[in-house]
Write a structure and sequence with these properties.
The protein is mainly alpha-helical. The protein has a single domain, classed as MetI-like fold, CATH 1.10.3720.10. It is built from twelve helices and no strands. It starts with a helix and ends in a 9-residue tail after the last helix.
């Protein structure tokens, strides 16, 4: 580094971590747009009973397959159920499954990756060979296989998707741990007699966590898309529970006459996946260690 570059670095104003984070995170319009979309979906999920104009499961054959109008803004399906109400209620299922799957999958995957990366040797070899085997299957294919074995229902869908998410978290966590554990403060902790548990929980996990936060955010969108795919194939959450995936499947046969039946939940899936990906991209920029502490 030249003398001029060093002087510029020294004269760069230091700012608090929180201020720097928000400055970088909200500096891009697409990230702000993604945050707004996510907040709107969260509001829709929480206040669905008040926002939905009709009971999402109420069958009214006299009003089946209505086109969008004043009474039903997005029309009705083949059983006379209000499409807008079912789309709003579908937000609850998608967000709940997404959050639970990401939490469960990340906990298991990060634990396996932490153990494999820290202890190395045969522990690393055994755990990572199993992870490599699982990563040979695309996530959705692996989830489809597990869901087929477990059967239908929300709980089985969560278990299948959580298991399918584990390899990605384990691989990333293992790589982070293998890099961080060679730092001087880790070696100093070992020389002072710190236990393996203390080193892993107090020093390794916090310093390996930022990339995992980004991955968890992006995986939320992936999980919601995967759940919709399973429901579309008839393996996920079953009717009459309103989910975006089975709504797209139900409206598939009416694409030419009443495309809104599939278009409305499909648009919701697209928006929420896009929003989580943009927010994850913003988090990646904001948590970049090279920007830490400087404007």
């Amino acid at each position: 580094m030249s003398i001029e570059a060093a002087l510029r670095t020294e004269n760069t104003p230091r700012v608090s971590e929180l201020r720097r984070f928000f400055k970088v995170f909200f500096s891009r319009g697409v990230v702000v747009f993604g945050m707004i979309i996510i907040l709107l979906f969260i509001i829709a999920a929480i206040f669905a009973p008040w926002l939905a104009p009709y009971d999402p499961d109420k069958i009214d054959m006299n009003n089946a397959l209505l086109q969008p109008g004043k009474a039903h803004w997005l029309g009705t399906d083949a059983l006379g159920r209000d499409t807008l109400s079912r789309t709003i209620y579908g937000t609850q299922i998608s967000l709940i499954i997404g959050l639970v799957v990401v939490v469960l999958g990340s906990i298991v995957g990060m634990t396996l990756g932490l153990i494999a990366g820290y202890f190395g040797s045969w522990t690393h070899a055994v755990i990572m060979r199993v992870i490599d085997t699982l990563m040979a299957f695309p996530m959705l294919i692996l989830a489809l296989l597990i869901a087929s074995l477990l059967g239908e229902g929300i709980r089985n869908v969560i278990m299948a998707l959580s298991f399918a998410m584990v390899p990605a978290y384990a691989r990333l966590m293992c790589g982070q741990v293998m890099t961080v554990k060679e730092n001087d403060y880790i070696l100093a902790g070992r020389s002072m007699g710190a236990s393996h548990t203390r080193i892993m929980l107090r020093h390794l996990t916090p310093n390996c966590f930022p990339p995992l936060i980004v991955m968890m955010t992006m995986m939320l969108g992936t999980t919601i898309l995967a759940e919709a795919g399973l429901s579309f194939l008839g393996i996920g959450v079953q009717p009459p529970v309103a989910t975006w995936g089975n709504m797209v499947n139900d409206g598939r046969q009416y694409l030419l006459t009443n495309p809104i039946l599939s278009f409305a939940p499909g648009l919701a899936i697209m928006l929420v996946v896009y929003a989580f990906n943009m927010v994850g991209d913003g988090l990646r920029d904001a948590l970049d260690p090279q920007l830490r502490g400087v404007i």
